[in-house]
Amino acid sequence: MEALWAAGGLLLALALLAFLLYCCYVRYIHAKYDHIPGAPRESFLFGHLPIIWRMVRKQEFTPDLLLQWAEKYGPVIRMNAFHRVSVLIVSPEGVKEFLMSPQHPKDPIVYGTLFRLFGERFLGNGLVTVCNHEHWHKQRRIMDPAFSRSYLIGLMDTFNEKAEELMEKLEEKADGKTEFSMLSMMSRVTMDIIGKVAFGLELNSLSDDQTPLPNAVTKVMEGLNKARVPFMRFIPGKQKFVKEVRESVRLLRRVAKECIDRRREAIQNGKEATMDILTQILKGAALEETRDDENILDNFITFFVAGHETSANQMTFTVMALGQHPEILERAQAEVDEVLGAKRDVDYEDLGKLTYLSQVVLCLFGALAWLSSSSSRSRTKAGAESGKEILKESLRLYPPVSGTLRRLEKDDVINGIRIPGNTTVFLNTYVMGRMEKFFKDPLTFDPDRFSKDAPKPYYCYFPFSLGPRSCIGQVFAQVSRGLEQHLASKHWASSGCAEHGWWWAPGATLMPCALALFCSEGRSPPCPWHVSQMLSQEQPWYLQGGAAGCTPSNCPGSACLNPNPLMEISVNIPLPAKVKHTGMCRGSWDHPMASTDTIKAGKTSAGGGHKPELAQRR
Ligand code: HEM
């Protein structure tokens, strides 16, 4: 017994000693980095983590904290977590240094966490996550031709076809009553397009939302967002979810394998291989000395994940922004009318002329052409002259991928501040895109800031990243650029609340949350925040769409011109019986293209993310 006590005591003493030594190490790290400005640490050990945890708990939007820090402590800002220090850099000099040179690899500590998802191999060593430069370069060189101009010209038919399918779906829904989630529509169309053009798969997720592969991708994205919660995998009550995510990852890899086997067989049987991403992946694999099938599967998943959600989010954000700015919408419409006229399908050559939409590559324009040709809008030159800026501006304020991380291996000096080697460096386009220092009046949506005569935002704007590791799918992403036109021409729009702005779900990518919208011309939009409040209130609520500070007591009755029975349809969650009346005021949102947002955020799988302060800054 005594021996047991002694052993226990010894273990305790050793643990204490280890802890003390660890504290000394943390102290040493603090001393090494404390010359770099940063917010005060909340805790010796946890550093700045408690601030972030608190925000995550309150479902606040963490990139806004970085923005505050950048403005207060920038351009080089220290962030502590245990013995690790990351440095956020918000200077063009720093962005240039870290993104343009292959000398600074992606940070393996951060990207390594995407190798597996809840224990299942996920992105592995695919193109986004691979950190070893040689390995990355070999893969990228082989994939690049799949994104060349000649390849993209060959894809026009597919894009036209998918665009038409989407437009048919939207037309079907546009009866002024039917509710649907715009984000989910965008997600499905981008998934169908990537499936087809990258891997020759007909997913048909736009017409059938029960197809297994798209559902698995959605589940995996949800898992990716939730995986940020520490020890999520081991939390009781989350086991079912974790199991579903793991099964989805396995399903993706299984489908990938079948698809690859089919393609290999076809090639062996002498069939001419389509020049798509899969062919390129296989070509790359064939050049390797040892075949690495797992790496092929990594890339299959990488393209699905990297390609579809980012594009869908960007499309939806842009649609929302256009909904808020009818005058910009009109200019965009004018351009499409002018360039496409009555054409139904769009040629590759047309794309260059749609300057407003910045070298649009994908042919959602096919449908747009048709839609705009049926419109009676007047044709002006204004749109064509100023067009291409909208999407750039949308990506400035709402970049789906907010930033990227690099590893600084040796000491360096940026903006006169010495950064020690072996540090994670964080470059963030969301933060820089919202700083007054780089963009005048940064929270105003103003596409003209990207016009051809305006000063170029060098190294402070990088929604597709910059340099060698920039987005290979940038041109694919332009699929979105037709969609706004369609939405423009059909009076689809979305809205936010003057008080609460848009909802965001910070996750693997930035995604808009309050996205279920339906085409309801002439109807004023309710504010998602107010609807959510209404749902959680005890007393009956009088909903006053979009107006700030609306309460049952101050609802000015007569202002509620538009008692709206459809409100109940437009809210995803069944309204409690106690909601007696849902009138909507004709307030600042009352413009001819008003439509309705409904609540998804905070109550749904989107993860919720709401930050009231955002609104004032939009
Ligand atoms: C609006 C849409 C998109 C945005 C905003 C976007 C943004 C980005 C960003 C910021 C990166 C760098 C990531 C990092 O440094 O960790 C990236 C990389 C990448 N993206 Fe995209 N992307 C979009 C669409 C696409 C599409 C459609 C595809 C595929 C068809 C794609 C495939 C990739 C790949 C493979 C990489 C890794 C490139 C490399 O490291 O060589 N992306 N993207």
From TrEMBL:
Cofactor(s) the record lists: heme
Chain sites annotated for binding heme: C471
Record flagged with keyword Metal-binding: yes
GO terms classed as biological process: cholesterol catabolic process; progesterone metabolic process; protein localization to membrane raft; regulation of long-term synaptic potentiation; xenobiotic metabolic process
PROSITE patterns listed in its UniProt record: CYTOCHROME_P450
Record-linked Pfam families: p450
Leader peptide range in chain numbering: none
Keyword match Nucleotidyltransferase: no
Protein name per Swiss-Prot or TrEMBL: Cytochrome P450 family 46 subfamily A member 1
Organism: Ficedula albicollis
Gene: CYP46A1
